[in-house]
């Protein structure tokens, strides 16, 4: 029970206090935890913490949607798909690509980042881009779009932000910047995996470019760099990763490796991480009579 009203707590502001409304993930072994916080005004906040290795954003969003619909007495909520045969490894293994150095790194090669010292310097900002601004970004980005379709609004915004954030960092021209993007593999394999599949079906891509390349070239050239990295994640690549992953499990090497996407250096200067939550059905969710 909180000793204030919801308005006084201001949970919608992006501050560290927002974490107090979620179960702590420190020293816990549970795969999922739920925390209910009742405020003096009667409002109730449902805090949800889960292990990201078990389910990605798409699967977790669908799970929460089903939970909300079930509490409302609905019976047509989405049923998760658990058929692991869709991602079974080859027999024998067929590891066509080098996944060590991309999805994983050896722990002995990881450089420590003074993250605790940097947290105090982190500032959270929320920015809105008008439809007109987004349209102006999208037009030059798609000049040489090779896929037969325009880049999405999210993709076009990524291209622009990578350029501008790199410029703001004020680095030397020959320094390299890396962009980390999460890819939903469900639509990249053949045949595509059903959206209701419950599990973690994301891979990272890491397009790289020098500061000179990012700042001296037009937006459509930056778009080509990112698009080429995303295009590499096809059916062959995804299934090669499954074989690599199972091979590491078989050989008992997990203690030697660390996921590159979890490294602090992935998001620290001069690098950048960009994710989209647009396809996660948050706006459809609601619990009991409390509403969305």
Automatic annotation (TrEMBL):
GO terms for molecular function: acyltransferase activity, transferring groups other than amino-acyl groups. Gene3D superfamilies: Chloramphenicol acetyltransferase-like domain. Belongs to the plant acyltransferase family. PANTHER family: AGMATINE HYDROXYCINNAMOYLTRANSFERASE 1 (PTHR31642:SF13), TRICHOTHECENE 3-O-ACETYLTRANSFERASE (PTHR31642). This is Uncharacterized protein.
């Amino acid at each position: 029970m909180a000793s204030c009203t919801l308005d006084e707590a201001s949970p919608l502001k992006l501050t560290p206090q927002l974490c107090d409304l979620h179960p702590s993930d420190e020293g816990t072994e549970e795969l999922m935890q739920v925390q209910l916080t009742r405020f003096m005004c009667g409002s109730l906040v449902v805090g949800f913490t889960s292990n990201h290795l078990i389910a990605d954003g798409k699967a977790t969003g669908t799970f929460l949607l089903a939970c909300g619909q079930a509490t409302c007495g609905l019976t047509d909520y989405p049923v998760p798909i658990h058929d692991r045969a869709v991602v079974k490894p080859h027999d024998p293994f067929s590891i066509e690509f080098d996944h060590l150095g991309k999805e994983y790194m050896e722990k002995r090669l990881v450089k420590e980042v003074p993250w605790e010292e940097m947290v105090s310097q982190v500032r959270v900002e929320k920015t809105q881009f008008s439809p007109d601004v987004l349209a102006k970004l999208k037009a030059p980005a798609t000049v040489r779009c090779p896929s037969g379709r325009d880049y999405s609004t999210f993709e076009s915004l990524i291209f622009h932000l990578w350029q501008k954030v790199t410029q703001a960092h004020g680095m030397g021209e020959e320094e390299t910047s890396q962009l980390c993007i999460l890819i939903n593999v469900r639509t990249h394999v053949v045949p595509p995996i059903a959206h209701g599949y419950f599990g973690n079906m994301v891979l990272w891509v890491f397009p790289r470019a020098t500061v000179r390349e990012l700042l001296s070239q037009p937006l459509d050239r930056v778009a080509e760099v990112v698009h080429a990295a995303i295009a590499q994640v096809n059916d062959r690549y995804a299934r090669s990763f499954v074989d690599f992953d199972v091979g590491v499990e078989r050989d008992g090497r997990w203690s030697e490796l660390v996921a590159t996407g979890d490294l602090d250096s992935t998001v620290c200067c001069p690098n950048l991480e960009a994710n989209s939550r647009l396809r996660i059905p948050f706006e459809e969710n609601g619990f009991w009579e409390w509403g969305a």
